[in-house]
């Protein structure tokens, strides 16, 4: 492959300034930060699944501020209604008509905090927004701003007051990541350092929305060779043979794998996708879409990693 163009080199530098700024806020979490940025570069929505208090909300807010995007946060609860999310028309006497008041979904980055604490009806209100970048309210279709990202946080399903996300909802998320507890040195830095909320409040954008759009266009131009596509197809086919998972990946999931792999390659400063890119993003791109067979004895991500080991490289 040819060396990256000057334009790609500039985008690569901008993206790493973004990552460095996020690392100063979310310490000791290089891989989750890079995966989050790759997800947004690929135009996807991000699900962060972990116990409370490890920095999920902070990461989402820091991403939005660092990209110069309009941010909105909704705390999902059992009594949250769809109208609380998308908005409602209210009769205004002065105008003698109903006036639509948009809800928090009309933002460029929507943080759906603890999404699995809301009921299925409210969760479903996000489906159209995530897939079509629009919402239908009272018979009228209203476009959402561009870009539009949903970053949702989810508590472990065994905690009280949670509802499992339906498969159709999970499939709308390009990636699902975890943060985990910090290591000892990172936790000491958190204990000795400034309050994270104050640090986020003081952040300045390191990329403009137009620069983000240019980076997303650059992702589409990252080359995937025929042998690389053969490898992606082999991985997808392996999920469908009944040995590893109850049901295999859909074609839409295959396209998601390729988009995320291209974004990962761009972050690495390359204009082509390598098998390492596919392997790096695969557990985070497909595990939440798959259910291991009963005999596996492994979790979803561990089963995907075992599949990667079993499928030969091109």
Describe the structure in your own words.
With 314 residues, the chain is α/β, with parallel strands linked by helices. The chain has 2 domains: 1-78 and 105-220, P-loop containing nucleotide triphosphate hydrolases (Rossmann fold, 3-Layer(aba) Sandwich), CATH 3.40.50; 222-314, Helicase, Ruva Protein, domain 3 (Orthogonal Bundle), CATH 1.10.8.80. The protein has helices at residues 6-25, 30-41, 56-66, 82-86, 120-132, 167-170, 184-192, 196-201, 209-220, 226-239, 251-267, 275-286, 300-310, and strands at 45-49, 71-75, 87-92, 97-102, 109-113, 134-137, 140-143, 149-154, 173-177. The longest helix has 20 residues, at 6-25. The protein starts with 5 loop residues before the first helix and ends with a helix. The mean pLDDT is 88.
Instruction: Please give the radius of gyration in angstroms.
Output: 20 Å
Order of helices and strands: HHEHEHEEEHEEEHEHHHHHHH
Q: Which regions have little confidence, pLDDT < 50, spanning 5+ residues?
A: none
CATH domain class name of the largest domain: Alpha Beta
Mean pLDDT: 88
Major sheet: size, sense and barrel closure? 5 strands, parallel
Give the CATH architecture of the largest domain: 3-Layer(aba) Sandwich
**CATH fold category name of the largest domain:** Rossmann fold
Share in β-strands: 5-15%
Overall structural domain count: 2
Could you say which overall geometry the principal axes of the C-alpha atoms support? Answer: globular
CATH superfamily of the largest domain: P-loop containing nucleotide triphosphate hydrolases
Name the structural class: alpha/beta
Helix percentage range: 40-55%
Give the number of DSSP strands: 9
Number of helices: 13
Strand order in space, largest sheet: 2-5-8-1-9
User: How far is the N terminus from the C terminus?
Assistant: 17 Å
């Amino acid at each position: 492959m040819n060396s990256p163009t000057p334009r790609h080199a500039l985008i690569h530098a901008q993206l790493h300034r973004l990552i460095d700024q996020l690392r100063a806020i979310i310490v000791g979490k290089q891989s989750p930060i890079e995966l989050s940025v790759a997800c947004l570069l690929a135009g996807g929505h991000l699900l962060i699944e972990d116990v409370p208090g490890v920095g999920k909300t902070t990461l989402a807010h820091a991403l939005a501020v660092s990209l110069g995007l309009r941010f909105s946060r909704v705390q999902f609860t059992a009594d949250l209604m769809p109208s609380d999310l998308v908005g409602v028309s209210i009769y205004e006497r002065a105008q003698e008509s109903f006036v639509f008041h948009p809800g928090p979904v009309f933002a460029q980055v929507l943080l759906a905090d603890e999404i699995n604490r809301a009921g299925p009806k409210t969760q479903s209100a996000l489906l159209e927004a995530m897939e079509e970048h629009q919402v239908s309210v009272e018979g009228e279709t209203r476009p959402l701003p561009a870009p539009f990202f949903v970053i949702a946080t989810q508590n472990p399903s065994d905690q009280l007051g949670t509802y499992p996300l339906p498969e159709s909802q999970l499939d709308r998320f390009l990636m699902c990541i975890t943060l985990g507890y910090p290591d000892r040195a990172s936790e000491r830095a958190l204990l000795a350092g400034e309050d994270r909320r104050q640090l986020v409040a003081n952040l300045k954008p390191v990329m403009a929305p137009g620069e983000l759009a240019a980076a997303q266009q650059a992702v589409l131009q990252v080359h995937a060779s025929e042998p690389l596509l053969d490898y992606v197809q082999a991985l997808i086919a392996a999920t469908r043979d009944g040995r590893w998972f109850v049901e295999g990946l859909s074609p839409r999931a295959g396209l998601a794998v390729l988009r995320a792999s291209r974004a990962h390659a761009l972050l690495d400063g390359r204009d082509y996708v390598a098998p390492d890119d596919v392997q790096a993003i695969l557990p985070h791109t497909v595990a939440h879409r798959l259910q291991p067979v009963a005999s596996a004895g492994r979790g979803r991500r561990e089963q995907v990693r075992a599949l990667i080991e079993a499928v030969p490289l091109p």
